[in-house]
Automatic annotation (TrEMBL):
Its main location: cytoplasm. Pathway: Amino-acid biosynthesis; L-cysteine biosynthesis; L-cysteine from L-serine: step 1/2. CDD domains: LbH_SAT (cd03354). It is found in: Cytoplasm. GO terms for cellular component: cytoplasm. The lineage of its organism: Bacteria, Pseudomonadati, Pseudomonadota, Betaproteobacteria, Burkholderiales. One of its GO terms (molecular function) is serine O-acetyltransferase activity. Gene3D superfamilies: Hexapeptide repeat proteins, serine acetyltransferase, domain 1. Belongs to the transferase hexapeptide repeat family. Keywords: Acyltransferase, Amino-acid biosynthesis, Cysteine biosynthesis, Cytoplasm, Repeat, Transferase. Its EC number is 2.3.1.30. InterPro entries: Hexapep (IPR001451), LbH_SAT (IPR045304), Ser_AcTrfase_N_sf (IPR042122), Ser_O-AcTrfase (IPR005881), Serine_acetyltransferase (IPR053376), Trimer_LpxA-like_sf (IPR011004). It comes from Paraburkholderia susongensis. It catalyses: L-serine + acetyl-CoA = O-acetyl-L-serine + CoA. This is Serine acetyltransferase.
Length: 279
């Protein structure tokens, strides 16, 4: 028990720069208190002392603001940061080295008694503040769920989910390549230092991935660029024809067609820019 406690304290000090000492973590971090009490409640649950298990979990909820059902399974080095408003359901499974921020719900969408109703978080998952992960599916290892995301379907390993409903914005392959590069660079050091460097470089507080653009935003900006390019090419064609001495006045409907093309390009650009502003 004390080995796990020391491990939990070390984990918090590593992931939270505000933690200044082991004593501060032990006495002032509700996430740690909730984990310790959950282990007691979970032991009672497995021993078929169901009422006692629920009572211990409710006392933990009263003391910390974190509600963990005694039937939930939590791995090692799980860090619940801040913690207020966190809800973890009965059939939830949380792997080693996961990080959960305040306001997170690992909930269920089924009322079937005895079924797997709550999500499974594999090793190293980060769930940002206010995120809702709802359903009996799996969030893959090292995946990240952005703040306030609503996730109702599986997330691949090393993927990142944001939005409501959640969208995958970092392909698993790209994240895997980045992780491999980090591992390769760290391999020059000894094994322990390499492992620690890889873990630190992979950790993204609140599930935020730097330079991760939303694919919808990328598509909209692509449309803006395309409209601007078309307008520029139309102007170049007109200038080239005039330079060659070709007058468009003699071509029936040419001026109207070019004017329509210019108006269409301007309308597309204006519409897309308006959509971006609304987003």
């Amino acid at each position: 028990m004390f080995t796990r406690l020391r491990e939990d304290i070390a984990t918090i000090r590593e992931r939270d720069p505000a933690a200044r000492s082991a004593w501060e973590v032990l006495t002032c971090y509700p996430g740690l208190h909730a984990l310790v009490l959950h282990r007691v409640a979970h032991a009672c649950w497995r021993a078929k002392r169901r009422w006692l298990a629920r009572f211990v979990s409710q006392m933990a909820r009263f003391m910390t603001g974190i509600e963990i059902h005694p039937g939930a399974t939590l791995g090692r080095r799980v860090f619940i940061d801040h913690g207020m408003g966190v809800v973890i359901g009965e059939t939830a499974q949380i792997g080693d080295d996961c990080t959960i921020y305040q306001g997170v719900t690992l909930g269920g969408t089924s009322l079937t008694r005895g079924a797997k109703r709550h999500p499974t978080l594999e090793r190293g998952v980060i769930v940002g503040a206010g995120a809702k992960v709802l359903g009996g599916f799996t969030v893959g290892a090292d995946a990240k769920i952005g703040s306030n995301a609503v996730v109702t379907k599986p997330v691949p390993a090393r993927g990142t989910a944001v939005g409501n409903p959640a969208r995958i914005i970092v392909p698993a392959a790209a994240a895997s390549t980045a992780a491999s590069a980090v591992t390769a660079n760290a391999a020059a050091s000894n094994a322990a230092d390499a492992k620690r460097a890889a873990e630190k470089s992979a950790f993204c507080a609140y599930g935020i991935t730097p330079n991760a653009d939303d694919p919808v935003s990328l598509a909209i900006h692509g449309l803006i660029d395309h409209a601007a390019t078309q307008s520029r090419r139309i102007d170049e064609i007109v200038d080239a024809l005039e330079h060659l001495g070709t007058s468009l006045e003699g071509l029936e409907g040419a001026d109207a067609a070019l004017l329509d093309l210019r108006r269409l390009s301007a309308a597309i650009a204006g519409k897309v820019e308006g959509t971006v502003a609304e987003r």
